[in-house]
Amino acid sequence: MLHAPRxxxxxxxCLDSRAAGRGALFAAxxxxxxxxxxxxxxxxxxxxxxxLTEEPPQMQIPYILVPDSRDALARMAAVWYGEPxxxxxxxxxxxxxxxxxxxxxxxxxxxxxxxxxxxxIGTNQNMIGDEILPAQRTTPESLTLQxxxxxxxxAGCTHxxxxxxxxxxxxxRTAGIEFAVGVFTNLTQDHLDYHGTMEAYCDAKARLFSQxxxxxxxxxxPWTPRILQNAACRSVCFGEGxxxxxxxxxxxxxxxxxxxxxxxxxxxVEACLPIPGRFSLYNALxxxxxxxxxxxxxxxxxxxxxxxxxxRGRCEVLxxxxxxxxxxxxxxxxxxxxxxxxxxxxxxxxxxxxVFGCGGERDKTKRAGMGRIAAVLAxxxxxxxxxxxxxxxxxxxHDILEGMRETQTPFAVLENRREAVAYALDHAERGDVVVxxxxxxxxxxxxxxxAYPLDEREIVRAHLNQQQRKAAARAAGGNDYEDSILVRDxxxxxxxxxxxxxxxxxxxxxxTEHP
Length: 515
Description:
Helix 2 runs parallel beside helix 4. The strands form four sheets. This protein has an eleven-stranded mixed beta sheet with strand order 9-8-7-10-6-11-12-13-14-15-16. Strands 17-18-22-19-20-21 form a six-stranded mixed beta sheet, with helices on both faces. Strands 1-5-4-3-2 form a five-stranded mixed beta sheet. By secondary structure, it is α/β, with parallel strands linked by helices. It contains 16 helices and 24 strands. The chain folds into three domains: 2-67, Udp-n-acetylmuramoylalanyl-d-glutamate--2,6- Diaminopimelate Ligase, Chain: A, domain 1 (3-Layer(aba) Sandwich); 84-305, Mur-like, catalytic domain (UDP-N-acetylmuramoyl-L-alanine:D-glutamate ligase, 3-Layer(aba) Sandwich); 316-507, Protein-Tyrosine Phosphatase, Chain A (Alpha-Beta Complex).
């Protein structure tokens, strides 16, 4: 309801009262940690000309009263920036795992087949063609999102492929955007600290399909019927099951790729994606079916798929010049960890060693499950910190170790992640695969409220260089290289300090200093 002059001039939209200068419209949004309505007076004091609010302000100020400030701001921002989404073909991708890779694959397919200029919005980064723009979150707040879309439209983008998170859907960040295609990858446990239950998490994802022309869904995922039950659009499905609209048939998993036959009602075509793993099959099928729904032939899309590059931090093989393999992956959910370890087991000539942790101030119920998955699938486990944030790191490690209680898999606990990575590399042997799981593309580690620099690629590179220098010193007759035979035996026999899960993570190896 409008409680302001219709001819009131607005100079800028903002959702941070500190940015509310002269003539601004300040949107009061409710969040989990704070409520924008608390800052109405501050926004007015800084010059705001009007406020968007869910409750009448306790001061004399023009205002717009709405039932949902987030939804209203998203639609207002779209108009403010000239409704840029309507000028481009929009594709949204949601799901627990595979969103980032699927968006990158579809972007490359569109570029290679129809020479489209494609904007990308997602977890790793935002892109306009080859230009890289920083990304703060998977799906930006609506005001930032519409500004970014306007930038993409001005830059000549014909298509936009974006990740749409469950948080974004619950918070109406994409309200008012009409997607030509919506893609559902899968649903596994994550973000239950926010959604509470898997059913609520699923229903949040399903919101995407109320604003799509067609839904492209993983027909093999058990949550797909619930995802699509209230969809306001046509739906098509992909997967290995023969009832799907696009079927991956005769699948061959290789160390550097996955090969399969893509079959639909019109025929079949041989396809190859140069990223290993069973999850790569589903990412490829989702991208191929989305491309088909955008008018690209299956043959052309499959040809382009064979030349697609992988995504930084997603099953990324590091060039190490060693006789073992080092993989970096963003896996931070039980299903994600299971996928990357299953992939590594599929081509490892010897052991699989995994280094992983769990984030603090996030879903605690997945920690034991991830510990169990690591112990069952890997031959050796190094438990460490991920992003502990404000939680005590050893409390997180203890939760993980609970899931390893009944297993016999050798493990070590090093809270300091740099030390944990170095430990795994020191104990890698010929034919091993060392999986560094959880950080992926992230070049930092969040401890408290501070993001400290931590890039596992740099850690690996520096440690291998150090190993080479020490090996050279030993060859020259020096004695400054610590013999790791005893530690390796301890790793195989259980924790390097002789502790078991019962004795508590506080006694584990490794430092606790910030990187």
